[in-house]
Design brief:
alpha/beta; Rossmann fold; seven-stranded mixed sheet; two-stranded antiparallel sheet; 15 helices
């Protein structure tokens, strides 16, 4: 198998885990990595240089297939495509799936993208000078999915007006234009990410939506100028990571580089809620629940009465004991909210979902496949320590995987407990 050749700077990145980078810098997007990745990213996405480290360590090449079963906004897929490595992803969040799909399409001509965007901007500007009181509005059911005051009326009016022209014109670069609008909607909104999503006390009565959008269009076009029109090597499937065998052929995957959600009480659909509603990926509560049913259960807001993933952990006494400790701690503290009562079950559902994922992944792997899972410990809620990496390693070994190592990526300070928690990379091998 021919190994990919890395530049000197990428060779230094490949030694990431031993670099003299500050702890925070290890998880940040560097300036040289912003192209394409910065078109749209989750808050706290894992960094491209970490992906490059494992691509080199696993001897990735143009003849290998990389999988990211929790693809998110496409960090692994985009980085692999930049290096000429075929990749596949699976993502259940429709907004994130859309974003990663656009980020893998480098076929549009940059000047065509710029020209069509300027034309649409002129039309939108003209209409917005006339529309002061009468404004397009979100359907009631869709608007109800947003945080109260997530976006002020005037910026919302501008976004919906601009979106109307984007959808009516339907230029070949239509999908780029929609993603750029999703990206521009955040600075036009009242949302804040710290890293939890919420509404800022200081709210914006107005925002230069069209100009923000044009800046993001120009960013995309500039990146495409640099990259050139390259045939796509990556593809992302809209699906459930717990069922990877439904998306992938048998014995097709050489390596896995991914970061599943952590069991940390973060509802990842809230992070993308505004964009998902604006672009029509979420239209009502039933649609939101349908999306959540396809997600790994990492928080109590995604727990449903018909969930059964916890059945997959009945043979793992460490996880059952952890759930018991969480429940006992809740009782000791007198916590009675629905959220607190569901926290132990969310934990067993999370690890059950990971058992299901790793079990169903096995038929898709080639013998000798190498895997890297970026995961984080938790201890903030109820101050019960959840050693995610070691538990995942135990599960994987029980399912027939070989544990190669648990690499320390970085530590992070738990905001509520002021305890340093490990973010780790569980490195596995599938013997076949």
């Amino acid at each position: 198998m021919a190994s990919l050749k890395f530049s000197d700077s990428e060779q230094s990145d490949a030694a990431l885990l031993g670099l003299d980078l500050g702890n925070r810098a290890r998880n940040q997007l560097s300036e040289k990595d912003q192209a394409v990745h910065n078109w749209y990213r989750f808050v706290l996405s894992f960094p491209p240089h970490l992906v490059r480290h494992y691509l080199q360590r696993f001897s990735a090449s143009a003849n290998t297939l990389v999988l990211d079963p929790f693809a998110g906004t496409g960090t692994t897929l985009v980085e692999a495509q930049k290096l000429g490595i075929p990749a596949r992803g699976i993502e259940a969040n429709p907004m994130a799936h859309f974003a990663s799909s656009v980020k893998l399409d480098w076929s549009v001509k940059p000047d065509d993208l710029r020209a069509s965007a300027r034309q649409i901007a002129n039309l939108a500007h003209h209409e917005l000078t006339l529309l002061l009181d009468l404004a397009p509005a979100l359907p009631t059911d869709a608007a109800a999915l947003l945080f109260k005051n997530a976006i002020s009326p005037r910026p919302l009016q501008k976004i919906l007006t601009l979106l109307g022209y984007i959808d009516r014109e339907r230029h070949p670069s239509w999908h780029y234009q929609r993603l750029a609008l999703a990206n521009a909607a955040i600075p036009a909104s009242n949302l804040r990410f710290a890293p939890e999503v919420g509404v800022s006390r200081k709210q914006k009565a107005d925002a230069p939506v069209v100009d923000l959008w044009l800046k993001r269009i120009e960013m995309m076009a500039t990146d495409l100028d640099t990259i050139g029109q390259v045939p796509p090597l990556g593809r992302v499937h809209l699906g459930d990571a717990r069922q990877p065998h439904r998306c992938l052929p048998p014995h097709s995957v050489d390596m896995v580089i991914t970061s599943p959600p952590y069991p940390n009480e973060k509802d990842y659909t809230r992070t993308t809620r505004l964009e998902s509603v604006l672009l029509g990926f979420l239209e009502n509560k039933a649609g939101l629940q349908a999306v959540k049913h396809e997600l790994l259960r990492s928080n109590s807001r995604c727990v449903y009465s018909d969930d059964t993933d916890d059945q997959w952990v009945q043979k793992y006494p460490q996880i059952l004991a952890l759930a018991k400790t969480i429940n006992q701690r809740r009782t000791d503290l007198g916590k009675t909210s629905g959220f607190s009562r569901l926290y132990a079950r969310a934990t067993t559902l999370y690890f059950g979902g990971m058992v299901k994922h790793l079990a169903n992944l096995r038929p898709c792997l080639r013998p000798g496949a190498q895997l890297a899972y970026v995961v984080g410990e938790q201890a903030s809620y109820l101050q019960v320590h959840i050693p995610t990496g070691s538990l995942l390693a135990t599960i994987a070994q029980d399912l027939g995987y070989e544990l190669v190592n648990i690499d320390l990526f970085r530590t992070r300070r738990a905001s509520k407990t002021e305890v340093d928690l490990r973010e780790e990379v569980v490195v596995l091998r599938w013997p076949g």
